[in-house]
Design a protein that fits this description.
The protein is of the alpha/beta class and 423 residues long. It has 11 helices and 29 strands. The longest helix has 12 residues.
């Protein structure tokens, strides 16, 4: 008699556990007051919405989110935007802040510990499988396909992997695999990354996505918690131990990536927007005529908190004072009042005043762009009021003294930086 569980989608018997406690220090001042997963992205979403939306779209209806660093804005977003799951429909959504549940002096000490400290909650839901996810990457992926691959291989753990040029893998955890993609070694940030068999210029880099049978993972977490030498981390401790003593397989991202139905030949898009330049570029990518990440795909929507706001508005039609946007994304409640923008992305509630120009700018919610301001290649943090006539992006030396400027000339502008200008 066939296993009845295998007839239904595996996602129905799965819990997604999202690790969302990290600061993301490479984003500098952008994460002074919020965790990296809570950083705004794409006009109206937050970074964490991508992992959560992938889970929902894959059919997973039990979700836990572990938070830690400056989690208030993240928790508020989750409460506002992700409160539609209902226990009465065998669904659940647990927000799991670090709360010293194991001991009075212990917060989450690593990614594995962030799961271990909530074993009782996971076991109460009793999922047969669990998918461990990082909450700070931008991508679209069908986890059901990865779950099926895990079951078919009989693996103890299946690790989601990116195929990357071999020498670009030096900053990742890298899988050494055999011809069947069984992992034979796991190397953290190697200077000479191992190649995929038969493909000497390509390596498999870990995405921080893991699939386990829940019971097996709980046993591994308890074993690891009893080891005084462990750093309580999946990449450093749990996965290498299973590779050595059990069965671990790599699942290639291009096998389960969700591409646009209209552009099926686009790249397998995955981004770690963990630096100011990477964050800026991934947002600006969305202004392409055919962006590599399709946020307009109704078959795989990115769910988020939907604010009730009026539509965007463009006003004035005079020479030099024309409200207009070219190849840009403009969110609701924005008013472009006699200003212009090109290849830019405005989040909710931005006000751009007359004669101002935005070029390749990412402007977060609630910002004011003053008259005659000119801004090029910049990220403007939430609620910043750009003074009249301020110029950003044209004088590299001056920008570097006033703002956070990257090697490639992207400026991050925050309220504190504007306050120091003494306008």
């Amino acid at each position: 008699m066939p296993d009845q569980r295998r007839i239904a989608p595996l996602a129905r018997d799965t819990m997604a556990y999202v690790l969302a406690g990290g600061r993301g220090s490479r984003l500098k001042e952008m994460t002074d007051n919020r965790a990296k997963p809570a950083v705004y992205f794409g006009g109206k979403t937050r970074i964490i919405d991508f992992a959560l939306s992938n889970a929902i779209n894959s059919g997973i209806r039990r979700i836990g989110v572990a938070t830690q660093y400056k989690a208030h804005s993240l928790i508020r977003h989750l409460q506002n935007g992700w409160n539609f799951l209902r226990p009465g429909r065998n669904e659940s959504f647990d927000i799991l802040p670090a709360s010293q549940r194991v001991s009075e002096d212990q917060w989450y000490s690593g990614t594995a510990d962030a799961v271990y400290q909530n074993i009782d909650i996971i076991e109460d839901h009793a999922p047969r499988y669990i998918v461990i996810l990082a909450g700070d990457h931008i991508y679209k992926m069908d986890y059901e396909i990865m779950l099926q691959s895990h079951v078919d291989s009989g693996a103890d753990v299946t690790v989601g992997c990116l195929e990357v040029p071999r020498m670009e893998a030096v900053g990742f955890g890298v899988m050494h695999v055999d011809e069947s993609y069984k992992i034979t070694d796991f190397v953290e940030k190697p200077k000479d990354p191992p190649a995929i068999p038969g493909r000497p210029d390509t390596a498999l880099a870990s995405m921080g996505i893991y699939v386990f049978e829940t019971r097996f993972l709980m046993d591994q977490l308890r074993r690891d918690a009893a080891d005084p030498t462990s750093s309580r981390d999946f990449g450093k401790d749990i996965i290498p131990h299973i590779v050595k003593h059990g069965s671990a397989y790599a699942h290639r991202f291009n096998k389960s990536v969700v591409r646009s139905a209209y552009e099926p030949d686009t790249e397998a898009y995955w981004r770690d927007v963990g630096t100011i330049e990477a964050y800026w570029q991934a947002n600006i990518d969305l202004t392409d005529v055919v962006p590599p990440l399709d946020i307009y795909d109704r078959d795989w929507p990115i769910w988020t908190y939907a604010e009730i706001v009026p539509p965007a508005k463009f006003v004035h039609d005079e020479d030099g004072r024309r409200g207009m946007a070219i190849s840009s994304l403009v969110s609701g409640d924005c008013i472009i009042s006699g200003g212009s923008l090109n290849r830019s992305l405005l989040f909710t509630g931005v006000r751009q005043h007359s004669y101002s120009v935005l070029d390749h700018a990412v402007v977060l919610p609630g910002c004011q762009i003053g008259r005659n301001a000119r801004i090029t290649k910049a990220v403007i943090d939430r609620g910043v009021q750009i003074p009249d006539g301020l110029v950003i992006g044209e004088d590299p030396e001056l920008d570097a003294t006033r703002f956070r400027r990257t090697e490639n000339g992207i400026c991050l502008v925050t309220k504190a930086m504007i306050d120091r200008l003494n306008y």
